[in-house]
Hints:
Rossmann fold, nine-stranded mixed beta sheet, two-stranded antiparallel sheet, 11 helices, 11 strands, globular
Amino acid sequence: MGWTYTAIQFGSHFLRSRRWDSFHSPSLFRLFTHCCNEKDRPEAYTLIERERDKLKNSPALISREDFGAGSKYSAETKKERISAIASHALSLPFQCRFLSRLAGFIKPEVIVEFGTSLGISASYLGVGAPGASIYTVEGDPEVSAVASSVFKALGLSNIALETLSFDQYIEQLPIDHLPIDLLFLDGHHTSDATIRYYKALSKYLHPGSIVVIDDLYWSADMQAGWQNLIALPEVTQSVDCFHFGMLFLNPDFQQKENHIIRLPMKMQLHK
C-alpha cells in the first residue's frame, strides 16, 4: 500500500476539505489563525532546522530497535544511517512549526510525546512552550542518544527524554507527568496501538487537553483508527489536517463536529 495509498488519499482529502480559516467556532478559528501565522518565525526555529540539516547529512550508522510500525522507505535493518532516519522519520518543518505555535497558544503545563525519534518535534515543542514540562518517549536507545545530543545543542532544559517502550512508560507513569495538557502520538502507526495508547492515557487527560495524532493517512488501518477515535463520546471536536489530526475534549463545544481542513499551501511549501 505505502506511498500509493497516501498519494491517492491526499487528492481525496483536498477535494473533501475546507480552508483552514473556515471554522464557525470562534475558539477553533483563533487557534488555527495563530498556528498558521507564518510571520511568526522565531530565530529558534532556524537553529532547530540547522540541527535537522546536520542530521540529514550525518553518515553515522546506529543500531535500530523499531518498536513502531516500521518504515515505508526500507525493510527493517539492524543498522541505519542517521541521515536516512532524518530524511524519512521526522515531522516536516511546517508540521513542527504548527505544533510549536499550538503549544504556545494553549500554554500547557505538561506535554507528553510518544515517538521522540531524533528530537526535532520535541525541540519545537520546547521552544513553543518554554514554561512547560515536556516528556518525550523513545524506545530505541541509540536514536534516543542522538535526540539527547540535539536537545543539549539547542540548550533545551525543559525536555525530559524517557528511553522506554511506550507500554513501559504507561506502566510507570510518574505523578509529576500529570495531568497531560497536550499529547502528541507519533510512534506506532497502527490502529490498534494508537487506540490503545490513547485509551491508556485518556484517564490522565482533562476537558482542556488536546491530542495530536501524526500520520493519519499512513495506511487504511491508521485511517480506521482515526475514525474510531473521533467517534468516542468524550471527543467533542476533531480536525483532520491530513498530515496529522487533532482531538478536542472540551465539553463547551455546543455540538460534536469532525472537520476536514486544508492548511495553507504556502505554509506547507515554505521550509
